[in-house]
Amino acid sequence: MKKIISVFLIFCFSSTLFISNAQENGMRNEDAWMIRKIFDKSLTEGQCYPWLHFLTKKIGNRISGSPQSYAAIEFSRQMMDTLGLDSVWLMPCIVPHWSRGNKSIAKIIDSRIGDIEMKCLALGGSVATPDEGILANVVEVKSLDEVEKLGKTNINGKIVFFNRPMDPTKINTFAAYGGAVDQRGSGASVAAKYGAVAVLVRSMTTRLDDIPHSGGVNYNDEAPKIAAIAISTNDAERLSALLKTEPTKVYVKTDCKWLKEKNSFNVIGEIKGKEFPNEVIVVGGHLDSWDVGEGAHDDGAGCMQSIDVLNIIKKLGYQPKRTIRCVLFMNEENGLRGGKAYGEYVKNGKEKHLAAIESDAGGFTPNGFECESISESFNQQLKQMQEWLPLLEPYGLSIKRGGSGADISPMRPSKVLLIGLRPDSQRYFDLHHTEIDTFEMVNKRELELGTASMTSLIYLLDKYGLK
Amino acid sequence: MKKIISVFLIFCFSSTLFISNAQENGMRNEDAWMIRKIFDKSLTEGQCYPWLHFLTKKIGNRISGSPQSYAAIEFSRQMMDTLGLDSVWLMPCIVPHWSRGNKSIAKIIDSRIGDIEMKCLALGGSVATPDEGILANVVEVKSLDEVEKLGKTNINGKIVFFNRPMDPTKINTFAAYGGAVDQRGSGASVAAKYGAVAVLVRSMTTRLDDIPHSGGVNYNDEAPKIAAIAISTNDAERLSALLKTEPTKVYVKTDCKWLKEKNSFNVIGEIKGKEFPNEVIVVGGHLDSWDVGEGAHDDGAGCMQSIDVLNIIKKLGYQPKRTIRCVLFMNEENGLRGGKAYGEYVKNGKEKHLAAIESDAGGFTPNGFECESISESFNQQLKQMQEWLPLLEPYGLSIKRGGSGADISPMRPSKVLLIGLRPDSQRYFDLHHTEIDTFEMVNKRELELGTASMTSLIYLLDKYGLK
Fold this sequence. Notes:
The structure is a homodimer. Chain A is an alpha/beta fold. The first copy, chain A, folds into two domains: about 35-100 and about 260-465, Aminopeptidase (3-Layer(aba) Sandwich); about 100-255, 3-Layer(bba) Sandwich (Glucose Oxidase, domain 1). Chain A is about 40% helix and about 25% strand. The first copy, chain A, has 13 helices and 16 strands. Chain A has an eight-stranded mixed β-sheet, sandwiched between helices. The longest helix of chain A has about 45 residues, at about 1-45. The interface between A and B is medium-sized, with 24 and 24 residues.
């Protein structure tokens, strides 16, 4: 009898196992088929590339508060309106409005070799110098710590020149950027504390070239605000070489100003979920850019990919269970006001936000996703997503623990799963925040693969939900 | 007693295991450290980028037999001579010498809209048309099969226009190329068999643009040789649209000729192995290019990376056990004579060739390696290499079964392990065999990462040998 029961139990167990495996294989086949369709559609009927052409060539760069930023809002809304979404709307946010004014000047004043005009850009948010500019001796440092060590005696009345390069041996260039960008962000206030009159910052790139890189400076309240200017890496090398031989003076002039804050908007469009309309998956990028170049990779690419995700879902006639929402955030570059407004909305709203994906690392060949969350379930969620890897690896995609994106970070306290698209990073800092971040630097297929990668992950998140 | 023996055996077994694990971990740490050094050195002191600048800008494109091909041989030899290698020499091979002569013409003759000059390039190896050119009606086909089906009735006296696009949905663009390139390689002979007077071939790219792509046509002996011309994809689309409305005539003229064969060379340099000097690991690319653009990605990149592998090994002061040999092959594009000469050398020589790595898929971010061999031990060898993956994955590198490279393929019969470097493929066919395959299209870091990837794999192959 015991034996019979055992055999029976074994039979039950193995047949359940069999059914469950078969079901799972069936689901997997269906998923593989769907993801193949998503890639096919994105690579043949994706719209991100022509949309990006309009955004970059007809509108151009679009710092928060600028007329072009409103053109970008209206353009994105109109594009979403063509897709037959369930709703498209604007979410208000108040943004700062900074203007660099006339071209900044940074000039080496040297009686031996004559004056040398350096290729420069005021850092975003920099204050103006007095009208007559500033002429002062330069002191070169490699770190914020070095300023602290040099102290008032060596810093007072000087222009501090931050010249620690991005580490070229980091394989991921974002790590190299992270290791150098404190000079740009905090250098001015640290130097001003000891009486510096302005700062020059080596551009954030591993290249040696003549292209200055802008990007934000963050003043704190403990020190006077002094002008902050990025110089090209070639000029940084030259200035450093001169300083090795004898004291060198530099003349700087910036004309920047803060204008009145402006009413601006995040642009939002969505496909309503059929089963769980109140559960939301967000995909987005930021619509503003710095005021140089065309903001093509940063972050026109991510925005146009995000609208294209909805486009591809509609084109495939796929009806999601959950609400898929594209959010184009305003003001990532100098305030994060759009991201914060959306974060508040998530915190106060009655919807459940499952996950948010941001594409803000350039429109290059995607290598996968990084995820983060403060939810207790995060480890489980990550494990669940990594079980999808056999479906994503044929497209070169991985899923790892890591960072996500600035605009979606204000959703962190609401325990939303935050995901960053991770493209190949080698070329990003050649053009980040420069005149050459233009449409021509974006490859159509690489851009479209980003759309397809995000759409695929959203398909899986939508279908299976999160543990 | 039995129990004591058991305990003793367990002890022996586990302590051996322990020692072996510890040894293995030690080795792994040493390897990880070495590979880190290789990447650091390549990204800070690699020379492939400035060398490529010279090759592309001072020498330019370099079809076999051309004066520039001899400049490239001499330049590479001189660069190798600066590295303190154990020997540098030239291996003779006789190469064909084809010249396109005057610019080819492909013009739509249309009384409705006026004549339209198409952007075109004679295919490499094409014969000339008669001096007065050829004017004929065009018949569009999508495949070689379609020509066979249309037969003499529909083909005779016509210009056959091969217009099957590369499939944009293939994630790996080399697969898309492989799926379309039969039209370029075999189209002329298949069409001529049925009386075609010339062929037009849609350029091998997924892009829609005005840039024609050259590449080789292979005539067989069963049909007359007729002129073969690539037209840009935009022109292919336009011609196809015209053909849909009414019969269309095209005028073509080519001025190509085959010159006398020339004595040429593979350029070879090596670091002699200390323990097994008679065991050789080859790394290489091909020094010739088509006669348009600068042959930067195809394959200046692979050649300069291959010399740089020896440079990095020397700079690290690493003494290999086995001989590491850089071979820059001549005549990959239209004859493979250099590869065949080296293949003969391997077959007849007294050295044992362990493995050969080729970089001929562009100087883009490397994703890993593909391997092949007809050796009985290949499965074991692949398994052995895949055990090294934990050392390579931090650099984004995989090791898979697959293809390798054209130049090293003549070593296949000698059972050499053949390995191809596999970079990201998205941009390669934007520029392959065109005027825009120039230095500017190569990113310094991406190129250097290729050097580092190959050096790392060679380090492991050298240290551990192959099963």
